[in-house]
Structures are given as structure tokens and as C-alpha cells.
Predict the 3D structure of the following.
Amino acid sequence: MNNNLDMYNKKRDFNKTKEPKGKKTKQNKKLVFVVQHHIARKDHFDLRLEWKGVLKSWAVPKGPSYNTKDRRLAILVEDHPYDYKDFEGTIPKGEYGAGTVMIFDEGYYEPLGNFEKDFKKGIIKFELKGKRLKGLWSLIHFKDNNWLLLKEKDEYYEFTNISSVTTSIKTGRTMKEIEEGKTIKKKYSKNVIEGIEISNPEKLIYTNSKITKKEVIDYYLKVSEKMLPYLKNRIISTVRCPDGVEGTCFFKKHLEKESEGISKIILTNKNKEKEDYYYITNVIGLISEAQMNSIEFHTWGSTITNLEKPDIMVFDLDPDEKLSLKKLREGVKDLKSILDELKLKSFLKTSGGKGYHILVPIRDVNWKEFRKIAKDIAVLMETKWPKKYTSNIRKEKRKNKIFIDWVRNTRGATSIVPYSLRARKNATVSFPISWEDLSKIKPDSITLKKALKKIKEKDPWEEFFKK
């Protein structure tokens, strides 16, 4: 493998073109990649992967594709200098490659083997960590300088439609604006949030409320500061709705690949088999999940740093369908009175469905003790008011009663996170409220739009992690 810039330099007159001169650059810890859209004699894309101080380069006539069935021709061309990753502009007429160059995407990549050996063998597998291009890809050599670029199967099944992108990821300019020499730097496109390209931003997620995918992601960005303390570093399950909440939704609790803001944890199940779970570490992880159509966020009651010591106990008051709201609210008060007697500080939130949730910060107990405490509290309520409450999960035991759901307080079980949207037609939210608001706010009355107004008010849960 030659890492040589002589051919690159011979082809260019640097008195005429603003392209960078060919010189090797010291390699950083992370390997960069860039994809440039280049309208020259022929319209094409250039894929460039950093290796040993240069950019190994392939011209891809049709550009990359997320369709795993597509086999894109990729022609190996001369090595380009490392600084070429930042080049966006016009190559003058008469010069080699004359035309306009736009930075379509940029980021880091990770070889999945030994890049140098794989290059010689003619099969290079790598993971792209860009803003528009993500996940697993392969370059396969078949003849002369001809290779194939193809997308491997992974979780990035619904990302950017390449043909729909017309602006630079770096400056937000169109090809025409670059050609005209406009230098006003724009803030990416409107559809990039926290550095993440939002695909199908106008797709309706909530048809009934006419709420788009971008509005859902904007919501999670705005509530992230309040939501993340209850979400980050806890194993999650999400409810994903690729076709909106009225389409097919499914639970997602395993992770194929890690990415920025999303990490993997391996646990052993009851059958002594290893399973991959995942957790969010920051706002980028939250936005990434929302971009992948995760609507609801559910978490374990413990953090990944103290997995066997749960710290958030959850009681879900689940009423019989015929039970009145008045009786449900009485149930909330009765449970609070029990918790008060036990000197357990409790916090109230809407479920976004038909019930209320009461959360209790707990510390210094293991899962077995934690589960027993929760069950004992539910049984105590059932014993004290047998006609009003049941601790039995079976629906036939719930007639004219409220089921005090304590079962979520079990290792591996999850519950809906404060501030999470629900995959229900009116875009309801499981939202923290004060005890004084119990008589005013119904379990399903806080919607996405109302939640955005309420987060500006005083936080009724500001003492949660101090207890």
C-alpha cells in the first residue's frame, strides 16, 4: 500500500487552485473520514478515509446508499492530503477536477480489522461515525481500481436519503452558493439537531395531533436537562414507532452497536446466556434514539454504576376501567399516607395513560429487599382497604379496585421515565406534578405542547435526588 502524494501534486497547479498542497499530516488518535460531493465533468461523490497521514480516496459515481441491496461502484483514485477533508469550493476551469466541491459529510471512522492488510486483500470493513453516514460499511475490490461500496445490515435502516440532501454539512451552503463564492456560514441545515441529521423530519408521528418527527425530537431536546437525571446511565427499553404511533410499534431493549451518547452493557440472563443491553449517557444519545423513532423511554430502577442497588421505587396505580377519577385520586392520597407513615418521601407524576405514578428515592438496599419493601407496601394497602385495592396483578382481581402495581420494582423490570412521551394518539407525557396539582391534573391531560409550557414553571421534583 503506497501512501504517496506525488501523483496528487503533479496533477494540480497550486497557483490556480485553492486545494491544499500535498503533504502528510501526523495521524490523530481518531481516524477521520469525509465524503465530498463533486460536480466536475461528471457528477460524483468522493469517499476519503484517513490512513497514515493521507486520505485513501475512492470516487463513487452514484454516491453512498443506505439500501443494503445497492452495490455502488467505487473507483480508487490517488491519495489526497489530510487537509483535503476541509476543502469546499470551486476548482477553476482548465484545472484537474474542475468544478464545485461540497462537504456532504464528515466525522470519524473505525476499521473493523487491520486496514492495511484488508486493503491488500481487497475487503475493507469499517464503521462510519458521521452526521449523515453512520454504521457498518464495506469496500470490496473486484478489478483494477474498481471496488464496490456497500452498506452492511445494522440498526441504521432509516437514515438519510442521499439524493434528498442538497446542502453542505459544514457550512449549510448549496452547490450554487459555493460556486457563487458565498461565504456566509450557516448553522448546518434546520434538520441537524445536536449534530445529528434528522431523516424525514416532516413525517407525522402523531397524526391526531399533527405532530411531526422533528417536533418530537425538538421536545426531547427542550426537556433533556430535566429528563436526563432520571434517564442517563440506566439500562433502557424504548418503544419505537417507525411509522408513527398509529403504525406498528415495538419494544427495543438490545443494542447492536455503540455510538456517541449510547453505550452497551453485557448482562447474563437466567439461562446463563449473555445479552447486550444499552443506556444513554448524554443529550446526544437521547436525540439519537429519538431520531431512530424511539418515542417512549423506560428504565431500570438502578444505575449501571450500582446495578445491584436500586434507588428509584415506582408504584403505578392502575384502576379498573369503570373506576371514577375521584376514587383514583383517593387511592393516590391513601398510598401517600402509607409512605408518609413509613417516613418515605414520595413524588407524583402523571402516567400519560389512565393512572398516576408515585416514585420513592431509596438507597442502601439490594434488589431482593427492594422488591419485598414494594410488595409489603402494596399488601398493606390491600389489607387496610380490601374493597379498594389489590396487590394481585391478575385483571379479574381488579374489579372495582385499583391495582397497586409494585412488580416494576424487580431486577430487569422497567418503568416510564419522567418527561417521556407516550405512544398514544394525543401525544401525552408522563410528567412530574406537585401533590397540590393532583386535584387539577388528570393522568392523561399533559400533552407535548402543555409539557413545553410546564417545564418553565418551578420543578416540583427539585428535591428528588437530595432525598
Q: What stands out?
A: The chain has three domains: 6-189, 202-300, 309-413+431-467. The chain has a mean pLDDT of 92. The first strand starts at residue 31 and ends at 39. The radius of gyration is 27 Å.
